[in-house]
Amino acid sequence: KAIETSTYGVIFMGTPHQGVNLLEWAQSCSDGRSLGSLQDDPLLKTLSLYSGALQTQLSQYDPISSRFETVFFYELYGTHYVSPCVPEFSAKVPGDVNTESIGIYKTHIEMVKFPSKKDADYNNIVYQLRRMV
Fold first, then answer.
1. In this structure, which of 32, 74, 118, 119 has its CB flanked by the most CB atoms within 10 Å?
2. How far, in Å, CA of 5 to CA of 7, rounded?
3. How many angstroms separate the CA atoms of 39 and 29, rounded?
């Protein structure tokens, strides 16, 4: 309750609220393990599209989400040979109000790595943070 009362805004950086395409993601990130073993990984199952765990989280966040200003950042570039790991539809909370969705011109891995303070994506995030403070 204290966190809820003390929070004005929330920024999510490539958070897969709706999950990710597990097969595509597993193929791009495979480190030599078979796809079968990756698909059986409990963490990956939790992150799969529309998983029960993610839907439960959304149902818990939904009743309080309108109390916060929220910005959802999502990557515009794919990682390796795959489309973005967390596309815009998954990076947003469906039906959320007081929100904005902004694409970052980076891959999922690079989303919070900036070469300098002159980087346009860096400045966009700083702008959103300053707006909330």
1. 74
2. 6
3. 12
130 - beta bridge partners? none
Q: In a 3-state reduction of DSSP, which class is residue 11?
A: strand
For residue 74, list its beta bridge partners: 103
* Cα 24 from Cα 125, distance rounded (Å): 28
CB of 76 closer than 8 Å to CB of 106: yes
Tens of pLDDT, residues 65-103? 888 899 999 999 987 767 888 889 999 998 887 789 999
Residue type, 110: E
Measure the CA–CA gap between 65 and 70, rounded to whole angstroms: 8
Closest CA to 25 of 9, 2, 7, 41: 41
